[in-house]
Amino acid sequence: MKFLLVFDFDHTIVDENSDTWIVKCAPEKKLPSGLRNSCQPGLWTEYMGRVFVYLGDNGVKEDEMKRTMTTIPFTAGMVDLLCFIGENKDLFDCIIVSDSNTVFISWILKAAGLHKVFDEVFTNPAAFSSTGCLTVQNFHAHRCAQCPKNLCKRKVLKEFLDKQLEQGVSYTQIVYIGDGGNDLCPVMFLKKGDIAMARQGYALEKKIAQLAQDLRPVECSVLVWSSAADIMTYLKLLVK
After folding, report:
1. Considering the domain 2-15+74-127+146-239, what is its CATH architecture?
2. Which end of the chain is more exposed for a tag (fewer CB within 10 A), N or C?
3. Annotated binding site for substrate
4. Please, where are the H alpha helices in 141-192?
5. What would the pLDDT profile of 159-200 be if each residue is shown by its tens digit?
6. Cβ neighbours of residue 18 closer than 8 Å, sequence gap 6 or more
7. pTM of the full predicted structure?
8. Residue positions in the annotated binding site?
9. Annotated binding site for Mg(2+)
């Protein structure tokens, strides 16, 4: 009897957007308006590539970026929740599916001593180039019309479950914890016994409510959370 916990990262595990937090490293802690306005729908990763070039051109080094990223606040109650999951790894497999990047997530989780809670992290690959500039690539290619070009979270989840099944691992229940519009696609993949935990007041909760209004409700159960203590309460019921 094992449960799979799937976490988004930005505005879910951390209480900010890690990609916009890095702007604190920029001169005067802001981007030039031309760069800021250059983002096109569905092409966020390309936009962040330009941001990292700008930071590199302005002499922002890896150690300064790391110092800045490790000051990002966790969502209320999240550290306690992740410690609880870590203490119950016999019951929970735990993965992150995020539109952030490998460097940011690794820095943030390791600084807090929480990286071992997660079995796998699926996010955009990032590395520092020979010139010291952070470069980010799209996670994968996909054909989903709903999702940004670089990442379809449903595809990631489906492929992970298929791989686990090949190794003889199946889950009693999937609990998906997220907040954003790009979390709707994987939530619509969940089945009747699964749970979507949508952060209160954020895009995922609103999109699920809109589907219900349109008489196209999601198949799984939906619980709304405002702090990670709400998620912990539910997981403790599961463990019982």
Report:
1. 3-Layer(aba) Sandwich (3.40)
2. C
3. 19, 99
4. 153-166, 184-189
5. 999 999 999 999 999 999 999 999 999 999 999 999 999 999
6. 9, 10, 69, 72, 100, 101, 104, 105, 108
7. 0.96
8. 8, 10, 19, 99, 179
9. 8, 10, 179
CA 120 to chain centre: 12
Residue linked to tokens 């306005």? 37
List the chain domain ranges.
Answer: 2-15+74-127+146-239
| Contact partners, residue 184, CB within 8 Å, separation at least 6 | 146, 204, 207, 208
CA terminus-to-terminus distance, the chain: 12
Structure tokens at 112: 């807090």
Sheet architecture: strand order including 120-124:
120-124, 92-101, 3-7, 173-178, 195-199, 221-225
Rg (CA), the chain: 18
Residue partners of 222: CB distance under 8 A and separation at least 6: 195, 196, 197, 198, 208
Catalytic, 8? Answer yes
229, containing H or E segment: helix 228-239
In what helix (H) or strand (E) does residue 108 lie, and over which residues does it extend? helix 102-111
Taking only the tens place, the pLDDT of each residue in 66-83 is 999 999 999 999 999 999
